[in-house]
């Protein structure tokens, strides 16, 4: 039976990759708990339903972006958005979750009452505002704004006579066939879009302010294919998942510790396809690897498009849009029919939900993060946030194991409230950003709005798997207070 507005043991906000993972774990470990997934959109799938631009695909491999409980069995390890969405739907079907999903429900506000030990939610629904309450709130709302992407103010935009498209709102069926297209940006979206559009377009020009580190890799994992034949899907999946998890962390550590050694093979692979001049001019960032997100170029597709003359790169600052396209500060004119603004995501904090505890507004940016999964002094709340330097899911699954253990502990103790509590000394700890070691503008700009890290555990938010695992393996840290 579908849950109707009223009380649930758990409300999961968001029915994307994280919300589905949370629901699977909850159902398996706590079958007696009632729960609902409130999803603001008309469909589930989150990121993998929202983005529909040509070529949309994962940036990390599906052995680690996929769930530990559901082997990825497709040939491609770097998978299309559509196949990831299918996989999420399969997970929902296999775990019988559809009846728990309530679509078209946007959670705007959540009020915790210490008296009734529950959250009261203000939820916009198709029929008006719905009253939901829950004992535990799980925020799986992702990290960016579903209402629109980041769009810098470009001078002269209004005079452009062609079409402007933001990848977050890609019009159905548009592939830019026969047109000249500029793609503004140098992140994962631009790097995906350029070769995909180049298949049909007359010419695609990637216009970037500055270069990004890119790594060429095959989208098919040959070892995984061989192992599948030898030991079957599940065993192969588990082995490759573990191998990739270790590889991702190892590569990240190498990049941070020995950046010059790390850069060398990346640069050589690019030069093999487009030569040294193009690599030096357009693919040599001024920062160190992983100061900003490293992007994947599967099978070198971007560079093959450049080598064939179907794509080009212009590196520099845009002075203005013109009626025909763009003029760079160098004076170079980029004349096109279509401009795609792959200028990124607008980040938001925990689904833009206003949180209140006993009538007091929670200023999330003033709070400390508890292990990257909860907020200081906010009871019965989990915030699901994955890795940015490795597959998102690897962290989400640790979050879910931790959260499940918290619920079990609450049952053992017969308590209704769990809260990470700061000591008076900890309140005065130095406040460090939510994430350290990142320099991407869009992330840095958002750090003020996110909870802060303190000086020591458990007030930390590591991005290294082993550290996260160690931090999330301990409930008895003296800060998590059950009452
Ligand atoms: C184009 C693109 C490619 C990516 N590729 C990778 C990759 O290869 N590897 C990787 O690790 N990560 C990747 N990411 C990051 C990606 O977002 C995560 O991997 C993962 O999909 C996040 O899942 P999620 O469920 O946490 O968030 P989302 O997918 O963002 O889902 C959140 C859900 O919550 C809903 N929601 C939000 N606020 C509310 C609210 N207030 N009320 C109700 N519902 C709400 C949203 O509508 C959405 O359905 C990519 C991101 C993008 C944008």
Low-confidence parts = none
CATH architecture of the largest domain: 3-Layer(bba) Sandwich
Helical region count?
13
What is the terminal separation in angstroms? 32 Å
* Major sheet details: 9 strands, mixed
Task: Just give the CATH class of the largest domain.
Answer: Alpha Beta
Mean pLDDT: 96
CATH superfamily of the largest domain: FAD/NAD(P)-binding domain
Radius of gyration, Cα only, in angstroms?
23 Å
SSE map:
Elements: E1 7-13, H1 17-29, E2 35-38, H2 47-50, H3 62-65, H4 81-94, E3 101-102, E4 106-113, E5 118-125, E6 128-139, E7 163-165, E8 180-184, H5 188-198, E9 203-208, E10 214-217, H6 222-231, H7 233-257, H8 259-282, E11 295-298, H9 301-307, E12 311-315, E13 318-322, E14 325-328, E15 333-335, E16 338-341, E17 354-357, E18 360-361, E19 369-370, E20 374-375, E21 381-383, H10 392-413, E22 418-420, H11 424-427, H12 441-446, H13 465-471, E23 480-482
Parallel strand pairs: 1-2, 1-6, 2-3, 4-17, 6-21, 7-16, 8-9, 8-16, 9-12, 10-11
Antiparallel strand pairs: 4-5, 5-6, 13-14, 14-15, 17-18, 19-20, 22-23
Helix pairs in contact: 1-10, 5-9, 6-7, 7-8
The structure holds flavin-adenine dinucleotide (FAD).
What does this structure look like?
With 483 residues, the protein is of the alpha/beta class. The protein folds into two domains: 7-146 and 346-482, FAD/NAD(P)-binding domain, CATH 3.50.50.60; 157-218 and 259-341, FAD/NAD(P)-binding domain, CATH 3.50.50.60. The chain is built from 13 helices and 23 strands. It has helices spanning 17-29, 47-50, 62-65, 81-94, 188-198, 222-231, 233-257, 259-282, 301-307, 392-413, 424-427, 441-446, 465-471; strands at 7-13, 35-38, 101-102, 106-113, 118-125, 128-139, 163-165, 180-184, 203-208, 214-217, 295-298, 311-315, 318-322, 325-328, 333-335, 338-341, 354-357, 360-361, 369-370, 374-375, 381-383, 418-420, 480-482. Helix 1 packs parallel to helix 10. It is globular. The structure holds flavin-adenine dinucleotide. The site of flavin-adenine dinucleotide (FAD) has 32 residues, from helix 1 and strand 4.
């Amino acid at each position: 039976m579908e849950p109707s507005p009223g009380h649930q043991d758990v409300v999961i906000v968001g029915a994307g990759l994280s919300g589905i993972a949370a629901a699977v774990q909850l159902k398996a470990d706590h079958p007696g708990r009632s729960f609902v997934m409130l999803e603001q959109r008309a469909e589930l799938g989150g990121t993998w339903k929202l983005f529909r631009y040509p070529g949309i695909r994962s940036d990390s491999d599906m052995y680690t972006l996929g769930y530990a409980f559901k082997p990825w069995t497709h040939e491609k390890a770097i998978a299309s958005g559509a196949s990831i969405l299918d996989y999420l739907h399969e997970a929902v079907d296999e775990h019988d979750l559809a009846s728990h999903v309530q679509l078209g429900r946007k959670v705007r506000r959540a009020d915790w009452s210490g008296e009734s030990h529950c959250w009261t939610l203000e939820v916009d629904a198709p029929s008006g505002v719905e009253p939901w309450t829950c004992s535990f709130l799980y925020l799986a709302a992702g990290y960016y704004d579903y209402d629109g992407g980041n769009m810098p103010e470009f001078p002269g935009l209004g005079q452009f006579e062609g079409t402007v498209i933001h990848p977050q709102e890609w019009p159905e069926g548009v592939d830019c066939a026969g047109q000249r297209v500029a793609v503004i940006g140098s992140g994962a979206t631009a790097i995906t879009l350029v070769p995909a559009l180049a298949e049909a377009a007359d010419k695609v020009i990637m216009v970037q302010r500055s270069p990004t580190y890119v790594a060429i890799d095959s989208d098919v994992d040959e070892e995984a294919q061989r192992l599948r034949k030898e030991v079957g899907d599940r065993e192969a999946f588990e082995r490759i998942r573990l191998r990739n998890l270790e590889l991702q962390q190892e590569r990240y550590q190498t990049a941070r510790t020995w950046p010059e050694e790390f850069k060398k093979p990346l640069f050589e692979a690019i030069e093999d396809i487009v030569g040294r001049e193009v690599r030096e001019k357009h693919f040599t960032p001024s920062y160190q690897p992983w100061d900003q997100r490293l992007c994947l170029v599967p099978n070198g597709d971007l560079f093959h498009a450049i080598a064939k003359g179907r794509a080009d790169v212009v590196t520099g600052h845009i002075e203005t849009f013109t009626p025909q396209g763009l003029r760079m500060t160098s004076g170079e004119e980029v004349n096109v029919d279509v401009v795609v603004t792959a200028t990124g995501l607008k980040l938001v904090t925990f689904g833009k939900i206003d949180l209140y505890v006993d009538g007091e507004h929670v200023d999330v940016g003033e709070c400390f993060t508890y292990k990257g999964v909860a907020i200081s002094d906010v009871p019965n709340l989990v915030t699901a946030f994955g890795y940015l330097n490795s597959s998102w899911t690897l962290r989400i699954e640790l979050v879910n194991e931790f959260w499940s253990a918290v619920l079990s502990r609450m049952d053992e103790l017969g308590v209704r409230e769990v809260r990470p509590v700061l000591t008076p000394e900890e309140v005065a700890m130095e406040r460090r950003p939510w994430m350290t070691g990142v320099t991407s503008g869009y992330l840095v700009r958002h750090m003020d709005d996110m909870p802060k890290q303190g000086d020591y555990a458990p007030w930390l938010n590591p991005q290294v798997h082993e550290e996260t695992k160690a931090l999330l393996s301990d409930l008895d840290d003296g800060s998590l207070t059950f009452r």
